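User: My instructor asked us to take a sequence, write out its structure as tokens, and then describe one feature of it. I'm not sure where to start. Here is the sequence I was given:
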Amino acid sequence: MRRLLVFDLDGTLLDRDHRLSPDTHAALGKLSRRYPITVATGRSRASAAPFVMALGITVPVILYNGAVVYDFLTGRALHERRLAAEEARAALRIARAFPVDVEVYRDMCDPTLYVERITPRVARFQRKEKLPAREVGDLIAFLDFSPLKLLLLGEPGVLAALQAELERGMPGITVVRSEVDYLEVLPPGASKGAALRWLCERLGIPPRGVVAVGDQLNDLEMVRYAGTGVAMAHGPPELRRAADLVISSVAELPGLLPP
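Assistant: Let's start with the prediction itself. The structure tokens for your sequence are:
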């Protein structure tokens, strides 16, 4: 295996209804005859599994925005990073000053979203990702373990201010926007780009053999790492500037990539 095609899920492979369209399915069928395919997503194992199965992916996948590289064939994590419990609690203390909802991802084997309460924003997220949620009251008191990540839901302007505050107060952790209304707090050094580098080194694939496709700033590092970085046209300007190709639909890719 000397080449790899890696896709973000939401906003890249999945449409606005979070489904794989017939055109995308057809394009992936053509591409899979030339490239092994995998995904790099902020989703959890439980949330990503239906798409991994539908696409017949056999290469390890990147989950939780790079906190985990997971092999669905063997059912085990090949690479994992976690937030220290005190790091997570410190991030929660900062977030308390902002009108956001926080979801805690405890473990790959646990699909539950741990929240202080199930608000309309949390309920919308549950419907999108088809995950259960559990109200635990005070998250700071609850959090006596090392989580995989925190997901903060809120208005774009609020999240921008919160991101700046988290980066100022906790420079060691990774803070990244995965959607306009999602802000993720990740373990130090965790990113899709770092996880992709780790995976490619394990598989013996050089960067020049990698095509990475994404649509948000959490995809920026992997787009920069890949020999061919591809941005979706609706992505932010910084991502589009970093990419070698900009596309409106995954269906365009078979005609743009070398055989």
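For the description part of your assignment, you could build on this observation: The mean pLDDT is 96. Try explaining in your own words what that tells you about the chain.
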